[in-house]
Amino acid sequence: MIEEGKVLINGKLAHLGDEVVDGDEVIAGGVVVAHKESHCYYLMNKPKGYICSVKDDRGRKTVMDLVPEGIGRVFPVGRLDYDTEGMLILTDDGDLAFRLTHPKSEIGKTYLVKIEGSVTEAELNKLRAGVELDGKRTNKSRIRIVETDKSYTKLHVTINEGRNRQVRRMFEVIGKTVVFLKRIRIGELGLGSLPRGKVRKLTPEEVYYLKNL
Predict the structure, then answer these.
(1) In CATH terms, are 41-103+189-211 and 108-186 the same topology?
(2) Non-local CB neighbours of 42 within 8 Å, separated by 6+ positions
(3) If you count Cβ atoms within 10 Å of the first and of the last residue's Cβ in the chain, which end, N or C, has fewer?
(4) How far apart are CA 123 and CA 153, in angstroms?
(5) For position 35, what pLDDT does the model report?
(6) pLDDT of 71
(7) What confidence tens digit (pLDDT) does each residue in 69-117 have?
(8) What are the boundaries of each domain within the chain?
């Protein structure tokens, strides 16, 4: 059918050896065999004081209050706590949302964590190895100290789960209080310099990266 000119890929005649990727529209013999879908992909730097929901029946502010008009009907992927800041993906692509949030994907998410006081390597090793929350041990995590002072310690913590208030509760296990929490990376895709409360469109390269994590 290709040699006879009966196959179109995104409206153009196909040739032997052409590759088809997710999202391409393929028509063979006048029949659509794959649809081209158009989705929206955005990155938000979520401030504290907003919930990750499309709407709230208790009247609290949601991240949708920060979304500019005219970008389509998107929804937040996963959740950041009310008091947690940082990187949040907004999209209308259900397949990508499922991939980024499903436990089996085990996609690393990195947080900037500030705790009161100091912490020992022995205590951090306990967290790295996994601690018990709600009767189930957490997966192994990557943790490193990035700044320390007599009154506080800042760390980068990478986890590949999404349990409720997981990072805060992990540190509670070793008797530490998290006073600031911000997600700064999903995989190797970083928040960058996007101002707090702002939204920007993801580049095609960033979307491709997320889809292939």
Answers:
(1) yes
(2) 67, 71, 74, 89, 90, 91, 199, 200, 201, 202
(3) N
(4) 13
(5) 59
(6) 85
(7) 888 889 999 989 999 999 999 999 999 999 999 888 899 999 999 999 9
(8) 1-37, 41-103+189-211, 108-186
Instruction: Say whether 83 is catalytic.
Output: no
Amino acid at 129: A
Topology given in CATH for the domain delimited by 41-103+189-211: Alpha-Beta Plaits (3.30.70)
**Average pLDDT, integer, range 62-73:** 90
Q: Which CATH architecture has domain 1-37?
A: Roll (3.10)
The predicted pLDDT at position 37 comes to: 62
CATH topology of domain 108-186: Alpha-Beta Plaits (3.30.70)
